[in-house]
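Schema walk-through. Below, the input block comes first and the output block second. Nothing else is stored per chain. Lengths vary across the set, and this one has 289 residues.
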Amino acid sequence: MMRNSPYIIEATTDNFADILALSAQKPVLVDFWASWCAPCRQLKPLLEKLAVEYAGGFVLALVNSDEQQALAQQYNVRSLPTLMLFKDGVAVTTEMGAKPEPALRAMIDPYITPSDADQLRMQAKQALNEGRADDAVEALKQAASLAPENYKIHLDLVSIFILQGKLEDALSLYNALSDDVKTTKEGKSIGILLSFIEIALAAPSPDELAAQLKADAKNSQALYQLAAYAIVDRQFTSAIEMYLQIIMQDRNFADGAAKTALIRLFEMLSESNPDIVKEGRRKLQMVLF
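--- output ---
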């Protein structure tokens, strides 16, 4: 799934000592698995996702127990999957069987120490909460220089650029990120927002669009572009109403672009604004059926 991540290592007898040495700096989670093991196949993608999400908070070492039988025997692995969390070269926790995500986080979190980059991220968040966006950007740039592989820092920067109205900078930075980062939960949400920003950047000004709608209230193209501006301005309910109007008057506009945009907007808002999404979905169902 995410094998190109620097946080995921294929462990063998040849490199295992080096992997354990890493546990002096950060936790190392070792997954003993096999290709024939159904619970292993269920667990491994989740572990890989977490390794990328934690962005260096821990290292995931994957041990193919069929190919690395000596390692499995050395650590008395008798059931697959078996998870061992190492800190300072010592296995501090061992779990057997596939675990849900909350249990995996509970296993990992107590052993993670915030890095200098993580502390700078926290400083940036505080600065942003206090209205000091420029200070937040500087803190994040320092964090990125310390941990350039930590994708969360770059997504934080993209988000601040959007808040500052530096939309071209936000797009440029986001587009430079890897596909693995763009498919994380945070990456997907920001990517959806940026897709609306791109529509707004390519559109006439809001005043021009308003004039077009004054001349023709059913101008679907103007409504579609104005809805993108509304999303950029966080006027989500207004955007939903405009998309619904398009669907009511011209359901096939641009191959169903309004419905597609609504679904993507609901996905973006699902966690941050669930009430808006619930009401919007209710209205969409009424319009469609």
